Amino acid sequence: MASRQCTHLDFVDRVEPRSQGCEECLKTGDSWTHLRLCLSCGKVGCCDTSKNRHARRHAGEDGHPIVESFQPGERWRWCYPDRLYL
Question: Which domains does the chain have, with CATH numbers?
Answer without folding.
Answer: 10-85 (3.30.40.10)
